[in-house]
Amino acid sequence: MLVCSFTGAGSRSGMRVLSRSFPFTMKHSDNRSSRHTSRRWVSVFVLLCCGAFNSAWAQPVDARLRMKEAATQPTLAESLKTLGRKAAAVCANCHGEGGTSVSPLVPNLAAQSPAYLLDQMEQFADGRRKNEFMQGMIKAMKPDERAGVAMYYAGQKLALPAPVASPQVEQGKVLYSRNCFRCHGTDGAGSETFARVAGQQAGYVAQSLKRYRTGTGPRVNELMAANTKLLSDADINALAAYVASMR
Questions:
Q1: Which residues of the chain register pLDDT less than 50?
Q2: Which pLDDT score is estimated for 60?
Q3: Residue 24 has what pLDDT?
């Protein structure tokens, strides 16, 4: 009896043949039924070997790659966004319908860069950002769902009221123009690497900046720590008010 056995990617063909490895031998006196059974077992082993070969060489789906593919494939892009909208239904409980949060301490997701959103999701999933609820929810998502959620929220518009001018906002504008614009942009739109801060929840921004300043909380960042260590609470509140007013 000849049996195929998968040997892994290290061999030239990924398969080898084992001689007389099955626990029975063919005798000349075997009847037709025995020969039929033997052929059936050969077929089963061949299928198992091929299945193992294909599984070993199958590439895992990568959310970033899928999002990159979607940039040149409109049909795929729409499919992922539809999937993302469905997966984001649970996210609306905290982040608001369409990604505009109704809580001052929960960030808006609408209009963020899709690459930035996906990166933050991956940080939650692997534990670099600490939040048990977010980690569990995102780890349960398939790669296409993660890519779809990021793309869905990136395509949404912030539903915000008109900003109100104030001395605090003006103070924040001065502070922002000194340094923050270098990473987050003069318009606060951010990039693939840095968050959009324009229109962000003031309470969330203030809380995050204070945590960066002290190096405590679920998120520690050396760059942000260096840029917030000399800010007073009044400075931070002014910055938060200004970025929240940006449109």
A1: 1-29, 42, 44-59
A2: 60
A3: 41
Task: Give the count of alpha carbons within 13 A of 225, CB side only.
Answer: 8
167-245 topology per CATH: Cytochrome Bc1 Complex; Chain D, domain 2 (1.10.760)
pLDDT score of 50: 46
Contacts of 3 (CB under 8 A, 6+ apart): 17, 18, 21, 22, 42, 45
Q: Are 94 and 101 in contact (CB under 8 A)?
A: yes
Beta bridge partners, 15, equal: 6
CATH T-level assignment (fold) for domain 63-154: Cytochrome Bc1 Complex; Chain D, domain 2 (1.10.760)
pTM of this prediction exceeds 0.90: no
pLDDT at 217: 81
Query: What are the extents of the domains in the chain?
Result: 2-57, 63-154, 167-245
**What is the predicted pLDDT for the residue at 3?**
40
